[in-house]
Each structure stands twice: as C-alpha cells, then as structure tokens.
Amino acid sequence: xxxxxxVNLNQETNRYYHGNRYKVIQLVKDxxxxxxxxISSELSIGETSAxxxxxxxxxxxxxxxxxxxxxxxxxxxxxxxxNDAE
Length: 86
Description:
The chain is of the alpha+beta class. It has 4 helices and 3 strands, in the order ααβααββ. It has a single domain, classed as Orthogonal Bundle (Arc Repressor Mutant, subunit A), CATH 1.10.10.
C-alpha cells in the first residue's frame, strides 16, 4: 500500500495515484516548470510515459489538475497546478 500523498487530494482521486503516476504527482506538486527530459530522467521513466501521465492529470478521474505548457529556449516545459480537494 502506497503512503498517503502529501498534497490535498480527495479520497476518490487518491485511489488512482500509484506507480509512475504517484511518482509524477510527488515530483510536480511543487508547481515548478520542467521539461519531459527532466521528468523522465528524475523518475527513470520514458519521455512518452511522462507525457501521457501529465495528460492524464488533466482528466476528471485523476483530479482535473491544470497542466500548463510553455516554450523556453526551444524546449517545451510543463507546470502542474494541483487542484484543492473539494
């Protein structure tokens, strides 16, 4: 059983955070801007997997979090803003 996430998520959403999704949410909860390369290297997962997991965070099932994108020196960076639990 995974330890509870140290962010404010409701129990319905919490049940979906495990494995690589759990690792991603723990990494991005600080709302810092990161490239897929940064995320994948920090978590030892592929860039394609990191991208898919970030997209999933936008879905209602995974908390409807905000995932912002920006270009910085030709690279796309991602920022996740976690929703407060309802």
